[in-house]
């Protein structure tokens, strides 16, 4: 465990170095968040009664999403891992006395958290200062916040476990960039990255709520806004634990099989 | 021009060498914009119209912006990699050759995988054109062509600005994404829905609305004035500051050495 913590720390402080990039990214995310909220406002005006959440809930949903983009979005892949697999550097990884799955998992979690920590605070600060309909609101109670925090970390686990499966698939297919993009885009869409799940048509929503993707950003964001609360939130967290376990086991199993017949590329 | 076509076919051939990879990347590009299409569709299932625009009318917008963007990106992709070209000194080689600088930079990369997005734009047009309630007389057809052509030129200018800025910073600037990728993503709805301020900004500063919102009003028959039909041409003025910035950057260029 100690060595993974050390790895985590190295990765974490490494990512913290890119402050200028983080500042540029923040400006982009502010603008992005505002535009998203403006778009929803137009639809809200078109027909407030058809709106499946309260408007303030949507605003909070978008701000928390933008603030923690690096935690929630599947498409923040570790390019280093893809490169290691396709250029042969994996050979060095394999001789290290560390479990490869755990190592990559720790690395991904560290990088995502470092990115999120740098960017989230200023975004949240501004989100608190903008005028009311656009402003982020606080969770209804301390309990709700606790549930959100729990769900937040579980969603990070689910996202990383899912990307691990995509990395392992690279062992078999080597190049296709396309597969990565498709895997990320479908997952993010079904997790509510473009449109929160309550906005889906009823049947699409019923299916999406059961998929592992609903255990990603969908759950913590809706718990934060209070759209899901109490017993329902506990059930949702249970579902997250379930999918986390499933994806974790699946990824480990697939990696074991892949490593049994790994062919190291390059020379 | 003949030289450019040589490079065109060269890039096409080299990218076709890796057929599976090429195909999957195209499908990937298709999925990216497909999810935003799904998003629009889901919202309209619920709300039916926004600011008086119907679903097929919004799709006209969606397809115009998507098509302009993917055309601009297909040919202007090299600007995206321009910061790297500056950093590794490759740009010095460009300067000593007896050819236009912009043309040479463009020839460094033509990205055909963007066809995934283009295909989608064509399909969406196929769905939306007959359903939008627009009577397709000649003037309306011309308007639509103007929207797509001028749209790609405006996006192309944005890519040029991105490259020009890197003369000063030596690295790509992420905030430009809000204008390029953001323009594409948020351009799926008429820009008026984002409010007065945003619309003004996208009219007078970065003229994305000139090839999208105003001519759309003409298409759907809300405005009959020729001004709205020819608004996309106004967007071409944007090429002046874009090119000026590029020239300024070029004049101040100091090689990074090797």
Quick description:
The complex is a heterodimer of chains A (267) and B (258). Chain A contains twelve helices and no strands.
Mean pLDDT of chain A: 89
The largest beta-sheet of chain B arranges its strands as: 1-2
Q: Biggest interface and its residues per chain?
A: A-B, 35 and 38 residues
Span of the ends, CA to CA of chain A: 33 Å
Number of strands of chain A: 0
- Percent of residues in helices of chain A: over 70%
- Look at the helices and sheets of chain B and give the structural class: mainly alpha
- What fraction of the residues of chain A are assigned to beta strands by DSSP? under 5%
How many strand segments of chain B? Answer: 2
Assembly of the depicted chains: heterodimer
Please give the radius of gyration of chain B in angstroms: 19 Å
Spans where pLDDT lies below 50 across 5 or more residues of chain A? none
Radius of gyration of chain A: 19 Å
How many H/I helical runs of chain B?
14
Q: What is the mean pLDDT of chain B? A: 88
Description:
The complex is a heterodimer of chains A (267) and B (258). Chain A has 267 residues and is an all-alpha fold. Chain A is built from 12 helices and no strands. In chain A, α8 packs parallel to α12 (230-260). Chain B has helices at 2-17, 19-47, 55-80, 82-87, 90-96, 101-107, 115-131, 138-169, 181-186, 196-204, 213-219, 226-229, 231-235, 239-251, and strands spanning 49-50, 53-54. Chain B has a two-stranded antiparallel sheet. In chain B, a hairpin with a 2-residue loop joins β1 and β2. In chain B, α3 packs parallel to α8 and α8 packs antiparallel against α11 (213-219). Chain B is globular, with a radius of gyration of 19 Å. The model of chain B has no long low-confidence stretch (mean pLDDT 88). The A-B interface holds A 21, 24-25, 27-28, 31-32, 35, 38-39, 41-43, 46-47, 50, 52, 175-182, 185-186, 188-189, 194-195, 199-201, 204 and B 18, 20-21, 23-29, 31-32, 34-36, 38-39, 42-43, 45-51, 173-175, 177-178, 182, 186, 189, 193-195, 198.
């Amino acid at each position: 465990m100690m060595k993974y913590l050390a790895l985590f720390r190295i990765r974490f402080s490494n990512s913290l170095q890119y402050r200028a990039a983080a500042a540029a990214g923040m400006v982009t995310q502010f603008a992005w968040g505002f535009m998203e909220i403006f778009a929803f406002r137009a639809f809200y005006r078109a027909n407030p009664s058809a709106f499946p959440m309260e408007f303030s809930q949507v605003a909070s949903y978008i701000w928390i999403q933008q603030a923690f983009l690096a935690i929630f979005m599947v498409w923040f892949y570790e390019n280093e891992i893809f490169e290691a697999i396709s250029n042969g550097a994996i050979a060095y990884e394999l001789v290290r006395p560390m479990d490869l799955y755990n190592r990559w998992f720790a690395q991904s979690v560290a990088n995502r958290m470092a990115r999120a920590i740098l960017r989230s605070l200023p975004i949240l600060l501004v989100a608190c200062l903008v005028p009311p309909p656009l402003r982020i609101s606080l969770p209804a109670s301390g309990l709700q916040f606790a549930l959100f925090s729990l769900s937040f970390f579980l969603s990070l686990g689910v996202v990383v476990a899912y990307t691990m499966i995509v990395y392992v698939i690279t062992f078999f297919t080597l190049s296709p960039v396309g597969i990565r993009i498709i895997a990320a885009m479908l997952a993010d869409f079904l997790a509510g990255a473009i449109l929160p799940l309550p906005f889906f048509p009823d049947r699409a929503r019923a299916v999406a709520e059961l998929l592992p993707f609903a255990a990603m950003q969908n759950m913590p964001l809706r718990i934060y806004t209070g759209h899901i609360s109490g017993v329902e939130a506990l059930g949702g967290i249970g579902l997250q634990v379930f999918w986390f376990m499933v994806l974790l086991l699946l990824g480990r199993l697939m990696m074991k099989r892949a490593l049994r017949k790994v062919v190291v590329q390059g020379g | 021009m003949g030289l450019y076509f040589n490079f065109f076919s060269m890039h096409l051939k080299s990218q076709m060498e890796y057929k599976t990879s090429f195909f999957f990347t195209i499908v990937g590009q298709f999925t990216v914009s497909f999810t935003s299409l799904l998003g629009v569709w889901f919202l309209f299932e619920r709300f039916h119209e926004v600011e008086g625009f119907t679903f097929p009318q919004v799709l006209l917008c969606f397809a115009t912006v998507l098509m302009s963007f993917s055309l601009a990106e297909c040919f202007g992709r090299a600007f995206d990699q321009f910061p790297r070209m500056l950093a590794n000194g490759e740009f010095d080689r460009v300067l000593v050759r007896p050819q236009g600088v912009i043309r040479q930079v463009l020839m460094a990369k033509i990205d055909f995988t963007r066809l995934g997005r283009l295909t989608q734009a064509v399909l969406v047009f196929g769905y939306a054109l007959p359903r939008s309630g627009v009577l397709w007389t000649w003037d309306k057809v011309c308007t639509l062509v103007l929207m797509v052509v001028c749209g790609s030129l405006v996006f192309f200018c944005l890519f040029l600005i991105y490259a020009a800025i890197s003369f000063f910073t030596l690295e790509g600037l992420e905030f430009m994404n809000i204008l390029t990728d953001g323009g594409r993503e948020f351009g799926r709805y008429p820009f008026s829905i984002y409010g007065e301020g945003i619309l003004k900004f996208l009219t007078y500063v970065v003229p994305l609305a000139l090839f999208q919102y105003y001519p759309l009003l003409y298409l759907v028959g809300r405005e009959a004035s020729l001004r709205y039909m020819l608004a996309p041409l106004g967007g071409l003025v944007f090429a002046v500051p874009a090119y000026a910035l590029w020239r300024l950057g070029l004049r101040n260029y100091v090689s990074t050495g090797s």
